[in-house]
Structure formats: C-alpha cells, structure tokens
Amino acid sequence: MAVRGPKHTRTDERRQQRTPTGLNFFLNKRVTIVTMDSKRIEGILYFISTYDFMIALLDKEGTRTGTYMTIFKHAVKHVRCEDPN
To answer: Region entry Disordered: which residue ranges (predicted)?
Structure first.
C-alpha cells in the first residue's frame, strides 16, 4: 500500500488566505448576542465551533471579567458586532 501525503494541502492554503465570513468575521471583536428568548449578552467572540461558540463576558464598563460563556447556535436569534473594524 502506497503512503500518501497530507490531503487537501492547497485547499487549506487557499482557506487561510481568504477573507473570513459569517461569525468568523466577528472573531475577537465585541459582539451583542440576542437569544431566542430575547435575552441580550455582550462579550468578545472568543471561539467558534460547529454547534456552539464561546464569548468572553464584559462588565458594565466594557472590561473583561475573566468569565467565558458557551452559547449553542440554535439558541441565538441574531449576533450584532459592536466593533466593525
């Protein structure tokens, strides 16, 4: 059986070069998340996976509290970016 190299190497290179879209565009930026029950959560988008994402929570002054919250994507109504740049 022949040994093969890593698969899709060129695809991975192209993926790293393109502009992020969707939630990936908001990564490491301040966001406001509104859940399906209309609760508002503010934080910095920290990590995104297939079914959920994690935010670093902020206090009323806008500084990080050191607490992280995992939110399942099916529980989100919409995400608004507070810091577009």
So the answer is: 1-20
Quickly tell me which residue has 């190299």 as its tokens: 5
Which residues of the chain carry a pLDDT beneath 50? Answer: none
* All domains in the chain, ordered by first residue: 26-81 (2.30.30.100)
Q: How far apart are CA 72 and CA 49, in angstroms?
A: 10
**Shortest CA distance to 22 belongs to which of 41, 51, 48?**
48
DSSP string, 4-47: ---TTHHHHHHHHHSPP-GGGGGTTSEEEEEETT--EEEEEEEE
The structure's pTM equals: 0.70
